[in-house]
Amino acid sequence: MTWDDLGDGARELATLVHEDGYRPDMVLAIARGGMLVAAALGYALGVKNTFTMNVEFYTGIDARLDMPMILPPVPDLVDFAETRVLIVDDVADTGATLALVREFCAGKVAEARCAVLYEKPQSSVRCEYVWRRTDRWITFPWSARDPVGAVEAGGVESVTSGAPLRAT
What CATH number should be reported for the domain holding residue 19? Predict the structure, then answer.
């Protein structure tokens, strides 16, 4: 996936939501992968009310915990009984993360629907809004490179091409 794909995918997801007649009051991003997608959807749909929910599941490439865990701070959904929520993530792989967040919202909000860039066939959750379906591993542009300062096997810090910009 490219950065341009993120923009195109988010815009197409927003169009699907709009054409379906769903008007979310809130966009709930599943951190970390869903944050950029959720922000783009929020802008495209004109929804300023955005929240983030930290859920840990993946620990590496195709490596995950036994079950997803909600990490603090946990959103307090008090007085949201009339709120329509759009839950957003980058991918519905197993579906376990989306299922956990959807269950968390159940009975606390008026309605919760899910939007993802990618949905895999094995996902236990069928999202209402999907940009692409695939059974392949997706390399997202925001996680394709090692973190800044990560030390590689040879003891050399990862370096990108070109000199870094420094604030003056």
Answer: 3.40.50.2020
pLDDT tens digit string along 100-120?
Answer: 999 999 999 999 999 999 999
* C-alpha to C-alpha distance for 120 and 164, rounded to whole angstroms: 37
The per-residue pLDDT for 154 is 47
What is the domain count for the chain? 1
Tell me whether residue 9 is in a domain: yes
Do 38 and 28 form a contact (C-beta atoms < 8 A)? yes
